[in-house]
Design brief:
This protein has six helices and no strands. It has helices at residues 10-24, 46-53, 55-72, 83-97, 108-119, 142-167. Helix content is 56%, strand content 0%. The model has no long low-confidence stretch (mean pLDDT 81). The two termini are 14 Å apart. It is mainly α and 168 residues long.
Length: 168
């Protein structure tokens, strides 16, 4: 391919394959033999050709599964406040309690965490004051709160994969 030739997007290639599909059905199906008992040239490597055509689907699935596993692996452990939960949880609790607070950082992430807390019925009563505070004794739905944040982390790699695949 020369520099002057336009590159096709993945969608354009799929559309071209769909238009060419009726022509391909006229050839021998995979596994059919020609008159001399040998496989035709169209059926040679049909399985490997199928794998190559679907390799992007396999790669996407692998990225999505690895993303899910790495985000949700043992999300319930430990049942105490950990590093960033002190900061983000505290400000999310302030939003849920509708208390005035000052934060020099943009509030979007903390507001999204507060939205997740509101969706699961958390009222902001726990203030995440220090690392190691116990969630269980304070009745905090920490697994659902962590899962809410992990959902966004899980969705990011597949989203980036789709963007990169579409851009060529």
């Amino acid at each position: 391919m020369s520099i002057d030739e336009p590159q096709l997007t993945r969608r354009q290639v799929k559309d071209a394959d769909k238009q060419a599909a009726p022509d391909a059905s006229a050839s021998n199906a995979p596994g059919d033999s020609s008159e001399d008992g040998k496989q035709s040239k169209h059926s040679k490597g049909a399985a490997s050709n199928w794998f190559v055509k679907n390799s992007s689907s396999y790669a996407f699935t692998l990225v999505a599964v690895l993303s899910f596993v790495t985000r949700y692996w043992k999300i319930w452990d430990p049942a105490q406040v950990v590093f960033d939960e002190v900061h983000f949880g505290k400000f999310a609790s302030y939003y849920l309690r509708r208390e005035y607070h000052f934060d020099i950082h943009p509030p979007l992430a903390k507001m999204v965490i507060a939205l997740g807390g509101w969706l699961v019925g958390y009222d902001g009563h726990f203030l995440f004051e220090k690392i190691g505070m116990d969630y269980m004794s304070n009745g905090v739905p920490y697994i659902l709160l962590r899962g809410w944040v992990a959902m966004f982390g899980f969705a990011l790699p597949p989203l980036v994969y789709m963007i990169m695949a579409e851009s060529g």
